[in-house]
Batch of 2 targets.
Target 1
Amino acid sequence: MKKTIWLLAWAGGAAGGFAGMEVFRHKTKHSIFKTGMPALMIVQAGVLIWYVLF
């Protein structure tokens, strides 16, 4: 299950994964998810901004 969550997050779903994690209070006590999802969201936002601007 953990691999599936991270695979979908890496495929562009970090924002949805983080939102679902907070709304359903699932995986919120695991530090890898609590810090990893927001970090991945920042990376994906940066890539998206770079792609749009250049």
Target 2
Amino acid sequence: MNIQLLKHCRQLAELNQSELAKRVQVDQSLISKIEAGTIPIHEETERKVREVFKHEGITAEYIKLLSELFEAKTMKKQRKEWQEVR
């Protein structure tokens, strides 16, 4: 799960960083660092985050769809930047 997707899903679930951290049983600063891209999300933390999101109605299928949309958007932006360089 990339940082953009994590932050977007957290906001969809109407959770702030502290609320998500509490439910995942980590410190709020860890969520902040993950969202800032300072540190990667560990597999176990991501599993717990996904469980919280699932409980909030954000299913694995929805997360996959969002991930694909973010990836497509990023690719489109990158292609546009490459064309501008040429």
